[in-house]
Every structure is written in structure tokens, then in C-alpha cells.
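Structure first, sequence second, as always.
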């Protein structure tokens, strides 16, 4: 991805828009496929952000447990 990766909220919001457009129908096959591919990329972006957040939470919890 040449551009800077969007933040979680931005990616999530754009993904919701992509899903709404696909569900509304009326698109050409080419446009539908392009939107599907964009949706897949946005889902991966969201997963990366969530994995990073989970790792941070896990690290904080481990640190807290080690101090008990």
C-alpha cells in the first residue's frame, strides 16, 4: 500500500460504506469486484489495528500480573 494506512475508525467507516454499496446492488460486475477487493483490504487493515490493540492490552495485563 503506497498511501499511509488509514486509522481503525476511518477503515471501519469506509468498510461499512463499501458493504452498504454492495448490498444496495445495481453495480456492474467490474465495480462490484473493485469494491469487494477494497473491502477485503479494509478488513485486513481493521484486523491489523485490532491485533495491535490486543497485543498492547495483553502486555499491560501481563505487567499488572507480574507486579501482584
Amino acid at each position: 500500500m503506497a498511501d499511509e494506512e488509514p486509522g481503525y475508525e476511518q477503515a471501519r467507516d469506509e468498510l461499512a460504506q463499501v458493504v452498504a454499496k454492495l448490498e444496495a446492488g445495481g453495480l456492474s460486475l467490474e465495480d462490484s469486484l473493485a469494491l469487494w477487493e477494497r473491502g477485503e483490504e479494509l478488513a485486513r487493515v481493521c484486523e491489523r489495528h485490532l491485533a495491535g490493540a490486543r497485543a498492547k492490552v495483553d502486555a499491560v495485563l501481563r505487567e499488572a500480573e507480574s507486579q501482584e
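Margin note: The chain has a mean pLDDT of 94.
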